[in-house]
From TrEMBL:
SMART domains: LRR_TYP. The chain crosses the membrane at residues 420-441. Gene3D superfamilies: Ribonuclease Inhibitor (3.80.10.10). Its main location: membrane. InterPro entries: Leu-rich_rpt (IPR001611), Leu-rich_rpt_typical-subtyp (IPR003591), LRR_dom_sf (IPR032675), RLP23-like (IPR046956). This is Leucine-rich repeat-containing N-terminal plant-type domain-containing protein.
Amino acid sequence: MTALQYLDLSNNQFSDFLPTFPFHNLPSINTLILSGNKFRGKFSFSIFANLSKLSHLDISYNPYLELETESQTWFPSIKLIELSLAGCNLRKVPRFLSSRNNLKTLDLSDNLLEGNIPSWLMHNATLQLWVRGNNLSGPLPKTFGNKSSRLTSLDISKNSFYGPLLEDIHLIFPELLYLSASYNGFNGGIPPSFGRLKRLQSLDLSGNKLHGEIPFLPHLRLLLLRGNHLEGQIPHRLCQMRHLGTLDLSGNNLSGHIPDCFDNITSWSDFSDGHYLYYLPALDLSSNRLTGSIPVQITQLKALIVLNLSHNKLFGELSPELGKFRDLECLDVSDNKLFGELCPELTNLTFLALFNVSFNNLSGTIPVGNQFDTFDASSYIGNPGLCGMPLSRKCGVVVEKPPKWNDNVVLSNMATANNLLFPCILFIPVISIVYLGDLICTSFRFDSW
């Protein structure tokens, strides 16, 4: 055991008293993962005091441990680079962290921390700081961070912060790549300074009270602004964010037409872009007040996996070109004012897992084959003119032509057939688009970074 450098005991049912574990027999250990267990007892970090090579420590999600947070007696002997204490029922940030100048990654998520973030946490060499899911509160202080901060990833989501966002964030965190401040109580507008974060690739401000317009954020690959009070039209400058992979503007007060320039975003139309490996190609504009027809340019976004335009006031027909979305898994245009028929080209969407065209004014026969044999009636309800499986409403059948000598019967049956078939031939095809809430198509997790 003395030569062991890497030990992973995570996600088991260990329930021993952790302080009795013989860590002193692991002098060469540099990575120790104890997460997802049921270790018990009062726990002092001093038990690692003699592990001078320990650089990566993960004790997260051991809710029965009682971690000591005030001791400083063992500071000089350990040089942690990564430390995860998520889900350990911490009520205070351990004081020994104030002298951890080598610490690059610190995860304190899902604890019971209160008050504001200690300023000393922001004044070391930390590159990644995650404190989501605590009881932290108050406005973000103007002294939050410093101009020499090297922080690249900051997650303060699911807390109780309030007030405006930082006006000079580009000066405070110039190296920031990822920021999540979702599900707090931030209000006011999104400062234009966010657009000056030249390295920022991922921004999640969902579930706040932000209002006003969307600023120009040219470098982003992921932008999540759902569940705010944003208003006005969707700005065309979003189309200049050519590498944007995921855009979620759902649940706001946006109005006007859908921009006809989304085909300028190359990551939605070009499979060779490759960034879908990191950010799911998804467009969600649901639950706004958008009007007009769906732009034909939308049909050029062949790399999209999720398209959700539901709960708006869109009208018109959907192009059969949507049947060329080779990778589309989720399609939802429910609760709009769309009309026409569902075109048979939709059955070419062989990866389609979720499909919803409910509560529109669609008519005609529901296509059959491939994925369309898997959708139930909930995908189609609220369209009085739709017929065929899986609905109980059967489509009309052309009546056989009777003998020529009975002209009255012929005329009568022709009238009946025309009345039944008229809704099936009047309009052109229409389609739909699906939405998955917090998890889009189950593979899309906003909180997985």
